[in-house]
């Protein structure tokens, strides 16, 4: 089901996924972890492929950090989880900055968390995220 959702998502991207460029980017990212030199995200088809490949896991990781008891299971104090829930439920307009946010995974995670905590209704917080990334192609 996740692959089907990713395929449907890819069909609505403004740029077609380039599988070979995406693979080259993934290899360069692995090398970057060892060598410390960031690869280029300059190829639009590689960015599209990166987005499709990492959308579900990146959004889930961020949402997990924000969601209910996960904060405490990661060793954070219980008050942090309570404060985050309160923030989502009592703040009509949430504003955040995402550093190195690429295709907006953090924005989607915040919107999904706000929707979940509000019961999926229209009474959830409005979310405004400024995404900052060195790669001009993500703009």
Strand-helix topology:
Layout: H1 2-11, H2 19-35, H3 44-66, H4 70-73, H5 78-90, E1 93-99, H6 105-117, E2 126-132
Parallel strand pairs: 1-2
Helix pairs in contact: 1-3, 2-3, 3-6
Explain how this protein is built:
By secondary structure, the protein is mainly alpha-helical. It contains six helices and two strands, in the order αααααβαβ. A two-stranded parallel sheet has the order 1-2. It is elongated and about 45 Å long. The two termini are 29 Å apart. The mean pLDDT is 81.
Q: Uncertain runs with pLDDT below 50, 5 residues or more?
A: none
**Percentage of residues in helical conformation:** 55-70%
Q: Give the SSE order as H and E letters.
A: HHHHHEHE
State the shape.
elongated
Radius of gyration: 17 Å
Structural class: mainly alpha
Mean pLDDT: 81
Compute the number of helices. Answer: 6
In order across it, which strands form the biggest sheet?
1-2
Terminal-residue CA separation: 29 Å
Key traits:
6 helices; 139 residues; mainly alpha; 2 strands
